[in-house]
Amino acid sequence: MFDTKPYEARMSAAVAHFQEELKRVRTGRAHPSMLDSVQVEAYGQKMPLNQVANVTAAEPQLLTITPFNPSNIQVIAAGIRQDQSLGLNPSDDGRVIRVPIPPLTEERRKLLVKQTSEKVEAARITLRNVRQDALKEAKRRKEAKAVSEDDLKTIEKSIDASIASFNAQLDASFKEKEKDILTL
After folding, report:
1. CB 38 within 8 A of CB 49
2. Whole-model pTM?
3. Which CATH superfamily is 5-23+105-182 part of?
4. Where is the Ribosome recycling factor domain (predicted)?
5. Model confidence over 95-112: pLDDT tens digits?
6. Could you give the residue range(s) of every CATH 3.30.1360.40 domain in the chain?
7. Which end of the chain is more exposed for a tag (fewer CB within 10 A), N or C?
8. Cα separation, 13 vs 92, whole angstroms
9. Bridge partners of residue 59, in order along the sequence
10. Which pLDDT tens digit goes with each residue over 23-33?
11. 141 and 147 in contact (C-beta within 8 Å)?
């Protein structure tokens, strides 16, 4: 019999990746995961920010970064400034780095919704590719007489049901994020 579990696992991974991508989209409120993409040159190599400092959202419009080693303050601030996609300007007082999160303009909010919808489409394409792979494998097995015609139809229905379920998850995540972005 044909096992759809590996394909469902790939679909689940695609949805999980999409949800991780959504965390990086700014909503106008400070969230520590906004800085997950920041790499810092510390101890002679590039490291993720969360490995050299503690990041907290002290206020809705302010991130506070406390370095584990105070000598890394300058490289952390530089790392945040270098990540142009964030558009943030950190300031430090010698012990703590404060990153004010500027409010989003209406135009910027609409642009973020558009970018997010592009991420949704990319995730859907990934799901369709997994579906195609699964159907190709099922048809190959049918031609090899490993599965019957009826089994093939059952497999197709199962895969299509999985795709519908994962697409619904994508839609729900997108609607929630869209509401977050557009809320002032």
Report:
1. yes
2. 0.70
3. Ribosome-recycling factor (1.10.132.20)
4. 18-182
5. 899 999 888 788 888 888
6. 32-100
7. C
8. 38
9. 62
10. 777 677 788 88
11. yes
